Amino acid sequence: MADHLVKRTLERDVLPYLVSARQLRKQWFYRLHTLFGYTTDLVVALAAIGISSPLFRLLGSTGSTSDAAGSPPTLASVLASVPLALVYPTAGLILAWVVFRVAFNREDGQKRAVLARSCTQVLRQAEASLPTALATADPMPALNEMLEKRIRPTVDRNIQDNSWPWVPFAPSIDADVTKEVTALCSRYEADWAPVNALLRQAPAPENKP
Length: 209
Description:
By secondary structure, the protein is mostly helical. The chain has two domains: about 5-25 and about 110-200, no CATH class; about 30-105, no CATH class. It is built from ten helices and no strands. The chain has helices spanning about 5-25, 30-50, 55-60, 75-80, 85-105, 110-130, 130-135, 140-160, 175-190, 195-200. Helix 2 (about 30-50) crosses helix 3. The longest helix is centred in the first third of the chain and has 21 residues, at about 30-50. It is elongated, with a radius of gyration of 25 Å.
C-alpha cells in the first residue's frame, strides 16, 4: 500500500528542512559567534566589578567594540604580565585566537551566524505549528503553506548568504527524519482522511472553451 500523501510530504520536504535547521547550531561560524559573544560579555562583566587582566581584555576585545576597561592591551604587555613558565602556552592561545578571529571575519562569520540564528527561529516556529496542522483531517493545505511561505523562502535567503551550507538538506539526517516521521504518523495518521477522499474534495479544474 502506498504511503499517505501527508506522510510523503513530511518525509521528503518538511522534516528534512526542520532537521537540517538544527544542524546550523553545529556550524563553525555559529559556534565561534557564540564563543566570541560569551567572551566579550565576560570581559565586560569582570571589568565592571574591577576584576580583569590584560589577557582577558585582549581575548575579549574586537575591532568593532570598545573595551570597558580602557584601551585594549598590547601583546607585549600581556606576555610581560604572565609567569615565565606560561609565556609559550599564553602565546599559543593568543595566536590561535587571532587565527580564529581572522577566519571568522574573512568568511563573514558574524553575518552568517546572525542569519543562521534567525533561520533556526523561523523553522522552529514552523515545527511548533506541525501538531496543529497534523491534527486535522486534511493537513496538506497547512503543510503546503508552511513550505511555500515560511520554510523555503527562509532557506533560499540563507543559501544566498552562505548561512545555509547545504543544497538543500544536511547530510546524514535520514535516520532522524525517519524516526520523527514514524512518531508523527503514529500519533496523527488515524485522524487523516484517506487520499481518495481528499482528491474528491479538491475542486475540479474549470473547462475553458
